[in-house]
Fold this sequence. Notes:
Chain A contains 15 helices and eight strands.
Amino acid sequence: MKEFVLYTGCTAPVRLPQYEASVKVVLDKLGVKIVDMKGANCCGAQYVESVNRHAFAAMSGRILALAETYDRDILAICGACSGSLKWIKHSLDNDWKLKDEVNRILADEGLEYTGKIQVKHLLQVFHEDIGYDAIKEAIVKPYSAVRLAAHYGCHVTRPFDIVKVDDPENPTIIDHLIEIAGATAVDYTGKTRCCGGPMLAMDQEVATKIGMDKIRNIRAENVDGIVTACVFCDIQLTQVQFGEGAQDESRIPVLTLPQFLGPALGIEPSRLGIGYNKISPSRVFASVVEV
Amino acid sequence: MMMPARTKSQKQATATKKVSQNALVVGGGVAGMQAALDIANQGFKVYLVEKSPSIGGRMAMLDKTFPTLDCSACILTPRLSEVARHPGIKLLTYSDLESVSGKAGSFRVRVIKRARYVKEELCAGCGECSKECPVEVPNEFDWGLGFRKAIYVGFPQSTPSTYTIDMESCIKCKRCERACERKAIDLEMEDERLEFDVGAIIIATGYRLFDVARYYRLGYGRIPDVIHAMEYERLINAAGPTHGHLVRLSDGRIPQSIGFVQCVGARDVTKDVPYCSRVCCMYGIKNAVMAKEHNPDADATIYYADIRAFGKGFEEFYEMARSRFGVKFFRGRAAEVRRDSRTGKLVVRVEDTEKAQPQDVEHDMIVICPGIQPPEDLAKIVEKMGISVTTDGYVDVANRYFGPVDTKVPGIFVCGCADGPKDIPDSVTEGSAAAMKATIILSGGGAA
Amino acid sequence: MSEPEHGPEKDVEYHPNSRFSQEIAAEPGGEYIRKCIQCGLCTASCMVANYTDKYRPRRIIQKILLGEREQVLASELPWLCMTCRLCEERCQEGVSLAEIFHVVRDIAAREGRVPKVFKDTVNQVLKDGWLLKDAFSDFIQDDRTDLGLNPEVNFDGEFVKKVKKRYFEQGDKEEVKDE
Lengths: 291, 448, 179
C-alpha cells in the first residue's frame, strides 16, 4: 500500500498533538504507512513567505528535498503547510533559476530538490490513495442521527490550479466522508470562507469576528459538530468560541477529520486524543461509542 | 474574394455545368428565416432544416426586444407565416443534417426527418389530441417552467402547426389517435431520409445559454428564486406558464425587489469565456425595465462592471431605464447569492465600487443574465461540412473584415449567432448577407 | 501604522500604466495586475473587507495601478490579506490579488517596511528553525507520550541560520534581486 513521509508543520505537534496521533492511527488502520520526517524545519508559510520570496522557497524547498531522501511523497496535515509546499514545488518546477538557487543553499547538507516527489494533503490521501470504497468497507460502527458541518480551509482547497484537492467553491471530500461514516453532512452559508486564523497576527479582534461569522452560520444549521482538515482552522474555530460571553452549552465541538472517522472504524477514542479537544465532542460520539 | 467579370462564354459554360438552383439553410431562427426568404424571393428553392418541431428560434421565446420594447412574438409571427407559405421554401422541421458532400454549386445533402408520428399533410393543428393526452412533461419552450403533453406544440404559433409526439414520454394509450378526426396520427411512423442537391449552404444554428449552474456561488439550481434570463422571459410573457404574471417560483408571490446579475458566463477567464457576449447588458436593462413595467412599485437593480450600450438607440435606452423607469444601476459584480433562512429573502453580496462599500442587498428574486454560447452540437454539425470552429466554439469565418459570413469552405456561409454573439438586427443583417453570398453561387455569377 | 492622509503624492502618475504598476507587473505573481477593471468582485468576497472599514482589496489594486507607491508601501493594509484566495478564485479577469500583495510585501520588506509582528515571528523562526520551540514544554512532551507519539519533535535549527545569513543580512541584499 501507499507510504508517505509525514510533515507535521510547527503547530500540530505542540498545539494539536491529538490531530497528529489520530492521523497516524487512522491511516494505519486503512493500510497507509507513515514515517516521521526527521530534522525538518518550518515551511515558512505566511511570515517568511511575506518578507522574502527566496527565503520562503529555500525553507519549503528543503522540506521537499528532505522528502526525496525518504523516497516517499509528503503527507501534509496542515492547510498552510500543504499550500506552501505545493506552491514552492510549483515554483521550483517552473523556474530553473529559483531551483538552482535553492539547490545551492541545500548543497552542503547533501540535499537536492529534483522534483520527483509529490505533496499531498490528508484529504487527497483519503480520496485518491485510499478511496471512498475502501473506507466504506472499513466502517464497523457507523454514526446515526448526527449532523456535522465540514470546514475545509482556504489553503487546502485554493488556489485550485496548484493544489488540485477539491472544487474550491463547492468542496465535497469531507462531506462525503461524513456521509460514508453514517452521519449527515450539513451545508451552510459561507462554507468556503476563511476561519480568520491568518488575521490573528495583525488584528485579533477582526480575526475573531471572521471566525465567529463562520460559527454563527454553522450554528444556524443546528449541527452537532464541525469537522476540520487543517491545524490552524481547528484551533481558530475552537478558540473563537471561548470569546466574551460565550456559553459552554452553546459551543459547537470541533474535531479533526481522523478523530471523526476513528470511532466509526472501530478505533478507541483514547487513541485519538479526544480528551485533548477543548470542546468535548461527546454528543458527536454518543451514537457510536461512549466517550 | 472578388469574382472577375465573366465573359459570355464563361457564363454559357456555367449554365451547362449545372449549378444547383437550391440552397440549404440549417437553422430556423430569425437569421435562418431571413436568409431563406431572401434566397427564395429571388426565385431559388430553399430547404430550411430545423431540429426542433417549429421554426422561430430563440426570438419566439422572448417577451420584448430591445431597444424598442416591441413584442417579440408580434413582430416575429408574420415572418413564420411568410416562411411557411412561401412556395420557394421547403420547411423540414424536426429534422437533422446527416451528411454533406460535394462542393460549391453541387453539394449532396442528406437529412433525417425524424418521425413526429403525426402526418404533416393531415394535421390541422386543432389540438384535440393534446386535450386527451394523459401525460404531462416539462415544456422545453418554457425552459421547464411550464408543462406540455406528450403530443404537443411548443407554443401556440408553432410553425408548422403540426403536432409532434415525444415518443420517450408517450405511453401509447392511443387516446390521441381516437380523438383525431382527420386521422393524422400514425404511431408507426418512421424516420425519413431525404437526399437532395444544393448549390450553397448557410449555417444559422443560433445559440444556447451559458450553464449558470456552474457558478455555485450564485445559487442557481439550489435556490428556487434564482432564475436565468430565459426563464424570466417566459415568466413575463403573456403566453408563458404564468400567463405573464411575474411571480416567484418558490411561493408564487410577486417579487417587490429584483436583482439582475451581469457578466455571468461572459468576460470570465476562470470559465474559459474571456470574451464579451455583447447582448447581455442590453437585454439585462430590457428585463429590468420590464420588471418595472409589470410592477412600478417594485425595485429593479442591475449589478454590473460596465454597461455596454454599443448600438443605435442603446445609450438612450440605458438612460431611459435609469431616469424614466427608475432602474437602479449598481456598479459592482455580484459575488454571492444566498438565501436568508429566517426571512426567505435572497441576499446579494456585492461591493458598491463607487463608495468602496461591500454590502448585503436583499431581493425577492435574482435574475442571472448569462452570456450566450455556441450550441452544443455545433462542432459536430459543421464537421460534416469540413468546417472547423474557433477555440471559442463558434464557426470560423474566412476573413473577419471582408468575409464575415464566409466560412473557409467555398459555398458554405454562416449567419446569426453561429459565428458569434449578436442581437436580432445584426442576425437578420447577416442572414441577408449570407443569402446574397449564396445566391451569387446559385445564379452562376451573373444575370441570365 | 494606519493609512496616511490622502493628499497629492509627489511623482504619482495617476494612470493605470504607472511605473509602480509596471514594477509590480514585472514580479512573478504580479503579471496580470493591469487586467483589473475595478469591478469589486474581490472586495465583495473578502472577509477582511467585511469586518473592517479600512481594508478594500480593490482599492489597494487601484492605488498600485495609479502609482501611489509610497502610500501603498508605507501602509499596513497589504499585510492584512489573509491569503484565503477567495478573491483570486473568483476574479473574472485573472488578477491574483494575494500574489500581488505578496509582491508588495516583498518590496516593502526590501525597503525595511515590515509590521512588527511579522518581523518578530520571522526572527523567531530564523532563530529556532520552527515557530513554537519556546512553547514546547515538558507538559506537551508528556501529552505526546500519552498519545503514543514521539515526545521529541526533531526540528532542525541549523538550516535557518544559513537562510538568515543569505537572505536577511545586509550584505547579501543585492543577491536577492538577481532576476
